[in-house]
Amino acid sequence: MTTATTFNLVGVIGAGVMGTGVAQNLAQNGQRVVLVDLTEDVLEKARLELRQNLRMQSLFQKKKNAETHDDVLARITFTTDVEMLSEADFVVENVVEKPEVKQPIYHRIDELCPEACVFGVNTSAISITRVGSWTKRPDRVVGMHFMNPVPMKPVVEVIRGHHTTQETLDKAHALLAVMGKEGIVVKDMPGFVSNRVLMLTVNEAIFLVQDDVSSVEDIDRLFKTCFGHKMGPLETGDLIGLDTILDSLVVLYESYNDPKFRPCPLLKKMVYAGLLGRKSGEGFYKYAM
Questions:
Q1: Which residues make Cβ contacts (< 8 Å) with residue 227, sequence separation at least 6?
Q2: Options 3.40.50.720, 3.90.1150.10, 3.60.9.10, 3.40.190.10; which CATH number does 4-187 get?
Q3: pTM of the model
Q4: Are 82 and 36 in contact (CB under 8 A)?
Q5: pLDDT 10s per residue in the chain (289 long)?
Q6: Catalytic residue positions, numbered
Q7: Where are the domains of the chain?
């Protein structure tokens, strides 16, 4: 099995909430990271968010770490230059849940990255076999569905595509070991296990709001008190991002041609209005920005 020491450089594509969380988690565990996005504005926002996350995390840690926030940030290179991935041993891609956005990225990094480099696809619903078909290395493409917030979640859903080899899975597990996480391997079907169930749950909860069956607060309270969930489905939707929920449902609907995945009209309306959840300051709840 590949050991964690083989990762000299890990590339992270996408400096949104998920990509920033992945970069933070890696850097906090001593890994050198290159975080790539399209604009300096997005990267600067990621840098500020990272510093804030590290500050908040340190407040709740029982055991104080001698490392400073600057030590962690020093391991991350923030760049718009994708060429900096040319020496990466492993790349984790975290862009939006739209195949038309993801595909050109894989064409580019397939040409750029070393032959042995593994591509980890952080996707909510898109088939890993499909992503592998966009490259000349489908055997080195593996799904790595991280949960939000990344540094706080101990388990990652690892998806084996049709061509994904055991060696690639071993490298994925080794990277997760660096991050202090466990991987649970599942087979490749759109939505996998977690989001094939979760997206239906969140979507149906939004239908309940649309149909005036119950209030937002009471829907979430029922799930927390009756089922012991830490968060209700609407709180979860706000945390994930309602735009990501919508994009994932569209992928599932198109993949299975099953009407049960049809996005709720209220969800579409909220996304069009920019009410995306925590990241926009308002979704089903309001948040301080």
A1: none
A2: 3.40.50.720
A3: 0.89
A4: yes
A5: 344 446 999 999 999 999 999 999 999 999 999 999 999 999 999 999 999 989 887 776 655 565 788 899 999 999 999 999 999 999 999 999 999 999 999 999 999 999 999 999 999 999 999 999 999 999 999 999 999 899 999 999 999 999 999 999 999 999 999 999 999 999 999 999 999 999 999 999 999 999 999 999 999 999 999 999 999 999 999 999 999 999 999 999 999 999 999 999 999 999 999 999 999 999 999 999 7
A6: 124, 145, 157, 195
A7: 4-187, 194-280
